[in-house]
Write a structure and sequence with these properties.
With 670 residues, the chain is mainly α. 70% of the residues lie in helices and 0% in strands. It contains 31 helices and no strands.
C-alpha cells in the first residue's frame, strides 16, 4: 500500500508542476508532497531495500548530490570578513545606514528558493529510486513517465500549430520531448526483447505488441515536438541520447565480447563527433551560449563579469536589469542553463556538473551491460545523462521545476534498477547455506550488522531530507511579499485616487518573474505609489520599501520608491541622491522606472548638484526626448513639478537636443 502511494507521488508531482505555473506557492505545495513521500519512504521501506539504496549511493555519487546544496547554503550564510562577499552589500549598507553582512549571493530569497527546488528534485529522485527497486513496479514508473512526456509534447505541438504561445504559460523547453524519445525507445526495446524471448504477459496486462505500438506512437509525438521547433542542437541532443541507448542494445544482442563492444563504441564516437560538428555554433561567443539560437546580449555581458563564487543561485533575474539593453523586456532574453549556472554558481561549479554528468553516463552505461535483464532502465539513464548536458548549452528548460523533476525521476529510475537485487542479497544467501559453521556465523553477523547500518544511514538521510523539505515548504507557503509584491498597491490603498491610478502596476514574485511588470508611465502614477496619507509615520512609508532591500539589494524599483518616499517626507534618515544613484546602477535601462525617477531627480537639488547624477539624469532625458515619444506626458509632468535648479538643468539639456521639444514641454499641461 505504502509503495503504491510512493509510486504515484512523483508522477502526480511532475504532472502538477507541468500543469501549474511555477511560483513560490506551487513549489511549496509540491515540496510538501515530496516531503511526506520521502518521510514515508524512510519509515516504511524495508531494511533490505534501503541497504540496496546504500549500495547504489557510492561516495562519489553522494558527494555529487550533496555538493550543490552545500554550495547554495554557503552563498546565503553571512561572511564575517568584510570584502569577501559581493560588493553590493557594502553599497546597500551605506545607503540604508545599516550594518548588512556580506554574502556571496545578491538575492537571499532567490537562493533559498533555488535550494528548495533542488531539494525537491533530489527527493523526487530518491523516492523514484526506492520504488524502482521492485522490478514489478519499475515498468509502471516507466509507463507513467512516458505518458507525461507524451502529453506535454502533444500540448507543445498544439501550441505551435495554433499559435497560442502568448496565451498559455511558457513552455518548459525541449527537455520533455527529448526525454520522451528516450523513454519511448526504452519501452520499445524492452518489448522487442520480450517478443524475441517469447515471454507471455500476465493476465489482464496489455500484450507486448500493443505496448510496442503505443511506444512507437509516443516516440513519433515526441519526435514531432522536436522537429517542429527546427532546433538542430536539440535534435543532436536527442540523437546522441537515443544513440547511447541503442548502442547498449546492439552490444547486448549482436556484438558480444570485448572487440564487439569496442567496435560499437568506436562507431558511436564517430557518429557523436559528426553530430557535434554539424551543430550551429556562434563564433566569438562564450561557450555557454554558443549553441543557443536566441539573442544573448545581456547574458554575454554578465558572463564577462562572472565571479569565481557566482552571484547566487536564482539571482539571474536580479542581474538582468543591469545588463539588458534599453527598453528590452526582461522576458525576451532566455539564458541557456549552462550560462545561468556559470553566472549564479561560478564556472568551476559548471565544470564540476559536466564531470558528474559524464561519470553518471559512464556508470549507467557500464551497469546496463552487466545486468542479465532489465538493462533498459540503466541504458535510458545513460542516454539522459548524455543528452541533458547538450540541452543545457542550448536552452534553459532543464532549470524549470517540472523539467528538472522529470529528469530526476528518470535518473532515479535508472539508478534504482541499475543493479540486480541478487547483488545485495548474496552475503545473506551465503550465510544461510552455512548456519552451523563458525566462520559462517561470523559472516552472517557481519552481513546483518552491515545491512542494519546501511539501512539506518539511508533512513537518516531520507528523514533529514524530508525535514529540510518541510522547513522549506513552510517558508515558501508562509512567506509573502518578500520581493516587493503588493508594495505599490499597498501604498495606493491609502487613498482611492491612488488606487485607481496604479491598478495596472504590479511586482510579481517567482524565479521566472521577479521584476516590474506594470507600467509607471506617468508622473502621477508614480507619485501616488508613494503618496501615503500624511498622518502615517515616515517609518511605515520607508520601511515597506527598505525591508526587501536587506535581502535583495539589486532591486532598482524599490531603491527608486524608497527615494520617492524619502523625498515626499523629507526624510533625515536616507540620502535621496544616494538612493537615486543606486536605482540607476541596478536598473539603468528600465524605461518603466524612467518617469518616476526623473520626477524625483529633478525635484531634488542634491541630485542636480552632483556631477555623476547629472550625467545619469541627462541620459534619461536624452532617451525620452530622442527615442520615446510615448514618454512625453511623463516628461511634462516631471518638468512642471521640478525645482528651479531642475528646470534650469532640463532647459539646458533639451535646448541642445531639440529646442522645439522644450517649447512643447513648457506650454503643455501634465
Amino acid at each position: 500500500m505504502i509503495v503504491g502511494l510512493l509510486m504515484l507521488a512523483v508522477p502526480v508531482v511532475i504532472a502538477l508542476a507541468f500543469a501549474m505555473s511555477g511560483n513560490l506557492y506551487v513549489l511549496g505545495i509540491l515540496a510538501s508532497i515530496l516531503a511526506v513521500s520521502t518521510l514515508a519512504g524512510a519509515i516504511f521501506t524495508s531494511s533490505s531495500a534501503l541497504a540496496r539504496v546504500a549500495m547504489l549511493l557510492r561516495p562519489l555519487l553522494t558527494f555529487a548530490l550533496v555538493a550543490p546544496a552545500i554550495w547554495m547554503a554557503v552563498q546565503v550564510v553571512p561572511i564575517p570578513v568584510r570584502g569577501l562577499g559581493n560588493p553590493i552589500w557594502a553599497t546597500a549598507s551605506a545607503a540604508l545606514h545599516e550594518s548588512l553582512a556580506d554574502r556571496l549571493t545578491v538575492d537571499i530569497h532567490g537562493t533559498i528558493q533555488a535550494l528548495a527546488q533542488y531539494s525537491a528534485v533530489v527527493a523526487a529522485a530518491f523516492v523514484t529510486a526506492v520504488v524502482a527497486l521492485d522490478r514489478q513496479r519499475a515498468p509502471q514508473v516507466l509507463y507513467f513517465l512516458v505518458s507525461i512526456t507524451t502529453l506535454v509534447s502533444a500540448l507543445s505541438i498544439w501550441r505551435q500549430i495554433s499559435g497560442l504561445d502568448n496565451s498559455l504559460p511558457r513552455e518548459n523547453g525541449s527537455t520533455p520531448a527529448v526525454l520522451g524519445i528516450l523513454l519511448s525507445a526504452a519501452i520499445a526495446i524492452r518489448m522487442i526483447d520480450r517478443l524475441r524471448q517469447g515471454t507471455k504477459p500476465r493476465r489482464f496486462v496489455l500484450g507486448s505488441k500493443t505496448i510496442l505500438s503505443l511506444a512507437l506512437l509516443s516516440l513519433f509525438v515526441c519526435l514531432m515536438a522536436i522537429l517542429i521547433r527546427g532546433n538542430l542542437t536539440v535534435m543532436g541532443a536527442a540523437f546522441l541520447g537515443a544513440g547511447t541507448l541503442f548502442a547498449v542494445f546492439a552490444i547486448r544482442n549482436w556484438f558480444h565480447g570485448l572487440w564487439g563492444t569496442a567496435g560499437v563504441l568506436a562507431t558511436a564516437a564517430i557518429l557523436a563527433t559528426a553530430t557535434v560538428s554539424i551543430l550551429p555554433v556562434k563564433k566569438d561567443a562564450d561557450p555557454t551560449v554558443a549553441l543557443s539560437t536566441q539573442n544573448q546580449a545581456a547574458t554575454e555581458r554578465m558572463l564577462l563579469d562572472v565571479r569565481p563564487a557566482g552571484s547566487g543561485a536564482g539571482a539571474y533575474k536580479m542581474l538582468l536589469p543591469i545588463h539588458r539593453d534599453i527598453g528590452l523586456d526582461a522576458q525576451r532574453e532566455r539564458p541557456t542553463a549552462a550560462a545561468a549556472v556559470a553566472i549564479e554558481m561560478g564556472r568551476a561549479f559548471l565544470y564540476g556538473l559536466l564531470i558528474a554528468a559524464t561519470l553518471a553516463a559512464g556508470t549507467l552505461f557500464r551497469r546496463s551491460l552487466l545486468r542479465t535483464r532489465d538493462y533498459v532502465y540503466a541504458a535510458v539513464g545513460a542516454g539522459a545523462a548524455t543528452a541533458l548536458p547538450i540541452l543545457a548549452f542550448a536552452e534553459d528548460g532543464i532549470l524549470d521545476l517540472a523539467a528538472s523533476l522529470l529528469a530526476a525521476a528518470l535518473l532515479g529510475l535508472a539508478f534504482g534498477q541499475s543493479q540486480s537485487s541478487t547483488v545485495g542479497e548474496s552475503a545473506t544467501s551465503t550465510s544461510q547455506e552455512l548456519p552451523n559453521h563458525r566462520n559462517g556465523e561470523g559472516s552472517t553477523g557481519r552481513a546483518a550488522r552491515s545491512t542494519v547500518f546501511d539501512s539506518m544511514r539511508v533512513r537518516l538521510a531520507l528523514t533529514g531530507l524530508s525535514l529540510a523539505l518541510i522547513t522549506q515548504s513552510i517558508w515558501l507557503l508562509s512567506h509573502r511579499g518578500h520581493l516587493g509584491e503588493g508594495f505599490l498597491t499597498a501604498a495606493a490603498t491609502a487613498n482611492d485616487a491612488g488606487r485607481e491610478k496604479i491598478d495596472e502596476t504590479s511586482i510579481a514574485t517567482g524565479r521566472g518573474d521577479r521584476w516590474t511588470q506594470g507600467k509607471l508611465a506617468y508622473h502621477e502614477a508614480g507619485k501616488n505609489a508613494v503618496a501615503i496619507q500624511h498622518n502615517e509615520p515616515l517609518a511605515s512609508a520607508s520601511q515597506g520599501f527598505a525591508a526587501p532591500l536587506r535581502y535583495s539589494p539589486l532591486r532598482g524599483d524599490l531603491w527608486l520608491l524608497l527615494a520617492a518616499a524619502s523625498k515626499e517626507y523629507q526624510s533625515p534618515t536616507y540620502d535621496v541622491a544616494a538612493l537615486l544613484k543606486l536605482s540607476y546602477y541596478t536598473a539603468p535601462n528600465d524605461l518603466d522606472l524612467l518617469p518616476l525617477r526623473l520626477s524625483v531627480a529633478l525635484g531634488t537639488n542634491s541630485a542636480i548638484s552632483e556631477p555623476e547624477l547629472r550625467e545619469l539624469i541627462k541620459r534619461d532625458v536624452k532617451i525620452a526626448v530622442t527615442n520615446r515619444p510615448a514618454l512625453e506626458p511623463a516628461i511634462v509632468a516631471a518638468y512642471q513639478a521640478a525645482s528651479v535648479d531642475g528646470k534650469t538643468f532640463v532647459d539646458s539639456v533639451m535646448s541642445e537636443l531639440d529646442p522645439s521639444y522644450l517649447q512643447n514641454v513648457r506650454v503643455r499641461r501634465p
